[in-house]
Amino acid sequence: MHSPLVSGIAYSVRSYAGEYAGHDHAHAQIMFALDGRMEL
Length: 40
Hints:
Elements: no helix or strand
């Protein structure tokens, strides 16, 4: 069975240390810590 919700998903692994100011996106983002902790 093919789900259109997962078709064409793009992903990347990025470093985040809290240095970015808040901003909007036209897409959803899922963030989780790969190593250690991440505070949002």
